[in-house]
Amino acid sequence: MSKTNRLVNRYGRKILESENMQIERTFFQHGCFTTYDHSVHVAIMSVKIARFFPMKFSYKSLVKGALLHDYFLYDWHNIGDMPKGHAYIHPIIAASNAKRDFDINAKEENIIESHMFPLGKVLPKSREAWVVTVADKICAVTEFFSLRLSKRYRRINKMAEHETAKSYRHTA
What we know:
The chain is an all-alpha fold and about 170 residues long. The protein has helices at about 5-15, 20-25, 35-50, 60-70, 85-100, 105-115, 125-170; strands spanning about 30, 35. It has seven helices and two strands. The longest helix is centred in the last third of the chain and has 45 residues, at about 125-170. The radius of gyration is 19 Å and the shape is globular.
C-alpha cells in the first residue's frame, strides 16, 4: 500500500466505514462515479498534492475534510431530494452533517464549507482547504472526462467491430 493510501486509511478509516458513508456508495456524483468514490479520489489527490509541497500540513484534517467535502447525503440527480441551489448550498449541508456524525474541528469545517470556492461563498482559510478545493476540481474534471472518453471508446470499438464483421462477411 502506498504512503498516500496509508495516510487516507489511517485518518479516514472511521469515516469510510461509517453507515452514512456507505450510503454514499448508492449516490452517483460524476457519471459512473459514486459520491463515495469521488470523496476517496479527492482525499487521495489532496494527499498527493500536499506531499508535493515542502510545507507542513495537517494530514488528519486534510483527509477528514476531503472525505467529508460532499457529505450531503442525498442524490442530487433526483430533483425531489435536491435543495434549490445545490451547487452553492451543499458544502454547508455537508459540514452540518459532518459535525453531527463526526468530531470535526474548525479547520475541517472550513475545508468542507469552502471546497466549491470560487462558486461558493466561503473562502478557504488554510492550506489544507486550498488543497482540497484544487483536488476536488481535478477529480471532478477527470471523472467527468473519463466517462465521456469511455463512452467514446465503446462507440469507436462498436464501430470497429461492425466494420470488421462487415469486411469478414464480404471476404467469406
